[in-house]
Structure formats: structure tokens, C-alpha cells
């Protein structure tokens, strides 16, 4: 029998190949929306709760990403790895189910109608994600949903709108992750192990950012790219990256 690690990697590779082969059009449309916002001097925001915050964080500022992407990271939504104590799993479980919190987040970041929002959510059913999704629709802000249609379509919404993310987003990128997320069964163990959704959504996030960069270059716009100080002159990298931070501030300061 194959080692469990081989079975897991094969499952993850299969999921990535399926996304590559079936979601290229959606990723391109998502990048077109982001490029339109960035070319206009606006922002492409990214947000997720729980593990969905990880691909949002990856969009900027890390090596190989570009100015114009703006993660929204709520500490109450990402620190549940503590489990016990401050900002633990139980607080997270409570907060992400509270309607109104997502709308407060939107007010704090003062989104412009010409911005774009990318929401990462495996289930696409919970209150905070759907608060933000619904407000984007109400305000005419372009909305991209990165979600699992197999999971979401099999699960009722937990938002008063009765909607799920894939039903309201302007563009949907389907991760195809299974209802249980985890991909590997072990004989003698009731529940599967080896989740794939986080790895797949991070890959999708970088595919969107990279495609956005290409579209901007084709328009004659040179996006500021974050570079690694560990592979080139540290001083040169810091100069480049500091310029990128200033360019981001230029997009934020009038809000």
C-alpha cells in the first residue's frame, strides 16, 4: 500500500490539476476585475475567516505579489490556533457566526465602489463572509468568491439572506474541495485526514495575483513587485519594497 503521505500528495495534486484545467477562465475574469481596480488607482481587497484568512494574507506583501492587493485581517478571525485562552477557538466560532460584524469590517476599511473584493471561504455560508458579500453587492463593489461549490451547494446558508457565497459573487473560482475537506481515509479511523482546501486556495490566490500582474503589464502599467531580500542585495530589496509600501499608502491615504 502507498504511504499515507503519497496518497495525500496525489490527492492534492489531482485537486490542483482539476482547478488548473477547469477554473482558468474564472481566474482570468477575477484577475481582470482586480487589474481594473488597480489600474484605476484603487484596491483589490482580500478577506477570509479562519483558514480562509491564510490565502488572503498571501496576496500582499509577500515576495512575488504586487501593489494594489490589500488583505483585511481581523485578529479575532485568525488566532483560533490558541484553542484555549484569549482569541481561542470558541471565540472564533462565536464571532464568525454573528451578523453585523462583517458590515462593521467594511465600514472600517472604507471601500470604494471601484475596488474589488476577493472572499475566501470553503463553505461560503457563514455570517461574516455573507455580510461582506451582501454589502459588496449592495454597493456595486466587484465580488470574487473562492469557495467549494460541492461543499456549499450541499449546505444551507447560515445568513439571514439565505444566500451562499457562490450564489452572489460576480466571479466564482471553485476549489472543488470535498464536503469534508480532508482527503485521506485511514482504515480504523472514522474521519478522514489531510485537508486540501487551504493549499488549493493559496495557489488560486497567487494565480489571481500573477494573472493580474500580467494584465497590468499588457496595459503598459508596471506594478510594484515585492522582492526577497534573501536572494538579492538586501539594501536594494528594502528600497524596492519600501517604495511598494509608499505606493500602497498613496492608495489608502485619501480614504
Summarize the structure.
With 255 residues, this protein is α/β, with parallel strands linked by helices. The protein contains ten helices and seven strands.
Give a verbal description of the structure.
With 255 residues, the chain is α/β, with parallel strands linked by helices. The protein has one domain: Glucose-6-phosphate isomerase like protein, domain 1 (Rossmann fold, 3-Layer(aba) Sandwich). The strands form two sheets. A five-stranded parallel sheet has the order 2-1-3-4-5, sandwiched between helices. Strand 3, helix 6 and strand 4 form a beta-alpha-beta unit. Helix 1 runs parallel beside helix 9, helix 2 crosses helix 9 and helix 5 crosses helix 6. It starts with a helix and ends with a helix. The model has no long low-confidence stretch (mean pLDDT 94).
Radius of gyration: 19 Å
CATH topology: Rossmann fold
Shape: globular
Strand order of the largest sheet: 2-1-3-4-5
Kindly give the count of domains: 1
What CATH first level would be assigned?
Answer: Alpha Beta
Q: Estimate what percentage of residues fall within beta strands.
A: 5-15%
Unreliable segments (pLDDT under 50, ≥5 consecutive)?
none
- Fraction of residues in helices? 40-55%
Identify the CATH homologous superfamily: Glucose-6-phosphate isomerase like protein, domain 1
The CA-CA distance between the termini, in Å, is: 58 Å
Largest sheet: 5 strands, parallel
SSE topology string: HHEHEHHEHEHHEEEHH
- Helix/strand class: alpha/beta
Number of helices: 10
Average pLDDT, rounded to a whole number, is: 94
> What CATH architecture would you give?
3-Layer(aba) Sandwich
| Number of β-strand runs | 7
